[in-house]
Amino acid sequence: MHHFAHIPPAERDRVQQQIVELNRATPEHCIFTQEHAVLKANGTIGWQQWTNRAIFDSDGKLVEFQAVGRDITGYKQASEALQASEAKLRSILENTPSVISLVDRQGTTLFINHSLSGRDASTLIGRNITDYLIPDQPDRLETVLTSVFAQREAAYFGAVGIGKTQSMAHYEVCIAPIQKLEGIETAIVMAADITVRKQAEIALQKRETQLRLALEASKIVCWEHDFVNHYITCIGRHTTGNQWQAENWQMTGQAGLLMVHPEDQERVIQKMEMAVKTTGEFEDVHRLIFADHSTTWVLAKGKVFADAQGQLNRMVGVSINISERKQTEIALQTSEARFRAIFEQAAVGIAQATLSGQFLQVNQRLCQLLGYTETELLCGTIQAVTCPEDQTIYQESIRAMLLL
Question: Is beta strand 109-112 parallel, antiparallel or unpaired with respect to 99-104?
Fold first, then answer.
């Protein structure tokens, strides 16, 4: 079957351009890394990344290409999920009427999404929160910050400040800790203007953004484990700093096991033994540990083979550096945790709904504002909680959003 049969129609022109680029290779510029979508056997779309090297003869004539490909579908999906999560967070920060800021333990402003107290948002960075939100009780902020960072729980208090109309406004303020892997050093401050009880509908616009991220090709180590002589022969080597070194080398089976992180060794041994017993395949995600104690995450895959007499004598496989994908997954978890903290602990009501008005998700603050339980709201619609005289305004806002 022709290679293009596996390429989605929308991708074929780009792949053709990649082929043209390959044919322009020179001895000085002979390595190309290219990505494209593919049609999998089950009809789904996957992604592949190819590292191509042009080979020239002694006269400088292009004679062939050598290529190594890898499936980057999982990485693409993780990257797209991360982008979608961050897009949701940006949408809330940009569209919410609340003032949302990020502060450290001393109350110093690190980020703020809106101007306040008659000052542009950029001028408030580095200033104490009391410069634009004055607590209704003396020393209240210091007590709240101490409690938030010590107890790791959200705290609420009242404050006053200059609103967007340049007049005195009252705010309900929520300070919630942002929990990261290394601990809590920052907190989210959400201030809702409660001077005017009737808030405009929160405009949330979803945008799914697919960004193509070009990363360096993950390096692949090919290996063969000789069960008879207890040697592992490798082409390529994983090194510290998530690097890859071109090298053909050997090590004993015991040395190979010692390269696996101690916490992962038992699992790797069990899976290897199971593959041998069933004449099957081996697959595991584990860490390699180096002399400087640094680690690299790899996806190892192998298959057991037998000799002419049917005796299992070797396993052939590959080891793929997936450290970048692991870092992406951690970033995704952190981003989703930030999104959940804003949604669940917001000082204003936030909801997610269909275009027809059916509630899909609501936070506790919205339930409190409307006087309904979460279950009651999720069984209803926006129209059901909208005043009759505002129904036309709501419908017009939906139509306007669809035209964007």
Answer: antiparallel
The residue segments making up the domain with residue 12 are: 3-71
Residue 170, pLDDT score: 77
Task: Let me know: does 36 contact 16? Beta carbons within 8 Å.
Answer: no
Across all residues in the chain, what is the average pLDDT? 78
Q: What residues form DSSP beta bridges with 51?
A: 33, 68
> Is 105 contained in some domain?
yes
CA nearest to 207, candidates 92, 98, 111, 99: 92
| CA separation for the pair 228, 311 (Å, rounded) | 10
The total number of structural domains that make up the chain: 4
Cα angle value 241/242/244 (rounded, 5°): 110
- Tell whether the model's pLDDT for residue 138 goes beyond 70: no
User: In CATH, what number is assigned to the domain containing residue 161?
Assistant: 3.30.450.20
Residue 7 DSSP label? S
Interatomic CA distance for residues 29 and 54, integer angstroms: 9
- Sign of the four-CA dihedral 45, 51, 56, 61: positive
pTM assigned to the model: 0.34
Pairing of strands 231-239, 243-252: antiparallel
378 contacts 358 by C-beta, under 8 angstroms:
no
- Residue 199 DSSP code: P
The CA distance from 312 to 314, in Å, is 6
Note whether residue 338 is domain-resident: no
| Gap between the Cα atoms of 190 and 36, Å rounded | 43
